Amino acid sequence: MTLIAPRIAVAPEVCHGKPVIEGTRVLVSVVVGAVAAGDSFEVIAREYGVTPEDVQAALDYAAKRLEEEIVRAAP
Fold first, then answer.
1. CATH number 3.30.450.20 given to 2-68
2. What does residue 43 show for φ and ψ, rounded to 5 degrees?
3. How far apart are CA 37 and CA 11, in angstroms?
4. Signed CA dihedral, 37, 42, 47, 48: sign only
5. CB 28 within 8 A of CB 58
6. What is the Cα–Cα distance from 64 to 20, expressed in whole angstroms?
């Protein structure tokens, strides 16, 4: 696995190369979705076998990716 951000890794053979919590197969997108659904960091950590710090790292990673995104509104 290649670390692409603190606690976030990718590998072509793991989840089709999508970002996961380091050392797991837990997708960053799943963690962020759980936060968006209103689950607490503690509940997410328990359900997915990660730490609350991993949940924070997933949110940090997602926020940084969104900073890079450019969306152009149609005229």
1. no
2. -65, -45
3. 27
4. positive
5. yes
6. 15
Q: Which residues of the chain have pLDDT under 50?
A: none
Tell me the per-residue pLDDT of 4-15, one tens digit each, with 9 for 90 and over.
999 999 999 999
DSSP string, 4-28: EETTEEEBTTBGGG--EETTS--BH
Global pTM reads 0.92
Strand 20-21 vs strand 8-10: parallel, antiparallel, or unpaired? Answer: antiparallel
Positive or negative, the CA dihedral 43, 46, 51, 56 is: negative
Which of these, 48, 45, 67, lies nearest to 56 by C-alpha position?
45
Residues facing residue 20 across a β-bridge? 9, 27
